[in-house]
Amino acid sequence: MFAALPLTALRAFESASRLLSFKAAAHELSVSPTAVSHQIRALETWLGVPLFERLPRQVRLTAGGERLFHSLHGALLEVAQSVDTLRPQRSAGSLTLSTTPAFATLWLVPRLGRFYAAHPGISLRLDTNCDVVDLRQDASIDLVIRYSLDDYLNLYGLCLFDERFAVYGSPEQVALASERPPTLISVRWHNSKLYALGWQAWCAKAGEDWLQSDSSMREYDEEHYALQAAIAGQGLALASNILVSESVASGLLVPYRPQVSVDGAGYSALCVPGRERHPPVRAFFQWLQEEARLSGHAL
């Protein structure tokens, strides 16, 4: 049934597609770039369709190549996982997750105890580098949690929740805000369009003239720094209802005029198609969905 399948060429194609580089695929497979190129040419001849567009300094998958990659990557991943279950004295399941420092600190880590209790055999490693990870080129990352306005058409995804931005502060600062213009705490985001004009939008909706009054503005590079400043009584922060939830539940922060909020973006958990069937990834997706539901912000 499978005797005619060119398995060596398919493995070369999967590596080159994931890395989008014949040279990188050759390094991964311990062969020459010429050998990878020959294998892929042979596969294209066998199929009768082109799989890559050869550009001056890179390669890009064709529509047919995208279709084959999605199917092949998932199938090879499932085979690798099945083989691993047969090995004696195998290590416990492991999982590498990439997300932002703020989401990890303010939402994920406080809840991870419940994941470890439910799945003691899974070892989780957090990667909180702010650079966006290309899942198709970095196979060391199992899944990511991203905050974005964009759709991810080529990835398997689970939408966790949308968010709203509102104003929060310590109980003392919130009480004083109705008497005098407060110090405003803001975040200087790497992706400015996601936070652009946030205070302006909130003040316009609330009818507050703080930006034209004597209010001072303090900026931080990360949301968790801004919230720590608000908890310490340094002013009022414009913050995500998702990321502020633990601080509000513990009474460290309270909302100022909670009926006034502005739109944010959305959080999604994403992986390369096929990897969602990997048992640790599947378990984490299920746990995330339940935690989002319990938080009251699930979509």
TrEMBL record:
Do the record's keywords include Lyase?
A: no
PROSITE patterns in UniProt: HTH_LYSR
Cited InterPro entries: LysR-type_TF_proteobact-type, LysR_HTH_N, LysR_subst-bd, WH-like_DNA-bd_sf, WH_DNA-bd_sf
Checking SUPFAM superfamilies in the record gives: Periplasmic binding protein-like II, Winged helix' DNA-binding domain
Per UniProt, residues of the HTH lysR-type domain are: 5-62
Assigned keywords, A-Z? Activator, DNA-binding, Transcription, Transcription regulation
Kindly list the biological process annotations in GO that this record carries: DNA-templated transcription; positive regulation of biosynthetic process
Lineage, top-rank taxon, reads Bacteria
Q: What molecular function does GO assign, one term?
A: sequence-specific DNA binding
Instruction: Report the sequence similarity comment from the record.
Output: Belongs to the LysR transcriptional regulatory family.
What protein name does the entry list? Answer: LysR family transcriptional regulator
Q: Which organism is it from?
A: Pseudomonas spelaei
